[in-house]
Write a structure and sequence with these properties.
single chain, about 100 residues, mainly alpha, two-stranded antiparallel ribbon, 3 helices, 2 strands, disordered C terminus, DUF982, DUF982 domain-containing protein
């Protein structure tokens, strides 16, 4: 029986030490990235993310908590990919405003 992969609601875009862009889609990929691409295997956020991502990958932890921990570890390691010029994409309203809000 194969283990089902788990995915975050929003992927995380990071850089390898060589500057290659990588998209991490869930805690299993995050745990692998932490193990294989972080030069320093220390730091408060690295240690926290390693444990939380491993737990979430084994379906024993909270997905979004592991994502936030991974982001913190990537910031700590200087491996977060910068947002594209122009900033983040903003959500737009897809429904008409209610009658009460038109007054």
């Amino acid at each position: 029986m194969s283990k089902l992969a788990t995915y975050w609601s929003i992927p995380v875009h990071v850089l390898t030490a060589n500057g290659d862009a990588v998209t991490i889609e869930g805690p299993e990929e995050a745990a692998d990235f932490l193990r294989d691409h972080c030069r320093k295997k220390e730091g408060r956020h690295y240690l926290s993310a390693s444990g939380l991502c491993a737990e979430a990958a084994a379906h024993n932890g909270k997905l979004e908590v592991s994502r936030e921990a991974f982001i913190s570890a990537m910031l700590e390691a200087g491996l977060m990919q910068q947002a594209p010029r122009g900033g983040a994409v903003r959500a737009t309203r897809t429904t008409a405003p209610s009658a009460g809000s038109l007054a």
